From TrEMBL:
YrdC-like domain residues: 8-194
Tree of life domain: Bacteria
UniProt name for this protein: Threonylcarbamoyl-AMP synthase
Any one GO MF annotation of this record: double-stranded RNA binding
Gene3D superfamilies in alphabetical order: DHBP synthase
Pfam families (alphabetical): Sua5_yciO_yrdC
SUPFAM superfamilies from the UniProt entry: YrdC/RibB
Length: 200
């Protein structure tokens, strides 16, 4: 996939496969991620298996823009301004989920979900074609400290559990910075690719 001018036909094929319940690995502005359709129970189970996650793990809804993000989380004015100033970018925000978010994606006790708007041409093209968020999780394998950065390496190691790898060249190794706003105040959960200064 061309990193700056992704081929529309290929983007369309990837979107069709996601709609048909495919699990893909795709590049973002921080590192590669696993992604599937929003309501795909099979996709969620496969992500949990690949990464060995428990039910307290926050999945992330990767959204095209702020309008889409607003359908899935509740945001007050102060939080709105802070998030708006940081997107698109390498941040994941944990916020109270709306009824649009399937229960299986919400944190079981807090009823929260992670959301982000990536600053990546290929991801944005795919999200525009899909018309809905990608349910995602960082592609970080158990017992490994850094995510894989090459599409061919991901295909080589995970071809048996993925339906497709979207390769647009190398992307970063640093996952997103995670900010939890579910309590009203910004709490830095993970320091990553996004600058945390404005949240401290």
């Amino acid at each position: 996939m061309h990193p700056d001018n992704p081929q529309p036909r290929t983007i369309s094929q990837i979107a069709d496969s996601v709609r048909a319940d495919a699990l893909i690995a795709y590049p973002t502005d921080s590192c590669y991620a696993l992604g599937c359709r929003l309501g795909s129970r099979d996709g969620i189970d496969r992500i949990r298996t690949i990464r060995r996650l428990d039910d307290r793990h926050h999945f992330t809804l990767v959204c095209q823009d702020f309008a889409q993000l607003g359908q899935f989380v509740r945001i007050d004015n102060d939080v709105f301004r802070a998030i708006k100033a940081s997107t698109p970018g390498s941040y994941t925000f944990i916020l109270p989920a709306t009824r649009e978010v399937p229960r299986m994606l919400q944190h079981p006790k807090k009823k929260t979900v992670g959301v982000r708007i990536p600053d990546h041409v290929v991801t944005q093209a795919l999200l525009a074609e899909l018309g809905e968020p990608l349910l995602s999780s960082t592609l970080l394998l158990p017992d490994e400290d850094e995510p894989m950065t090459q599409g061919w390496e991901i295909k080589d190691r995970l071809d048996h559990v993925l339906d497709a790898v979207v390769d647009s060249g190398e992307c970063g190794t640093e996952p997103t910075t995670v900010i939890d706003f579910s309590g009203g105040e910004a709490e830095i959960v993970r320091r990553g690719a996004g600058d945390t200064t404005r949240f401290e």
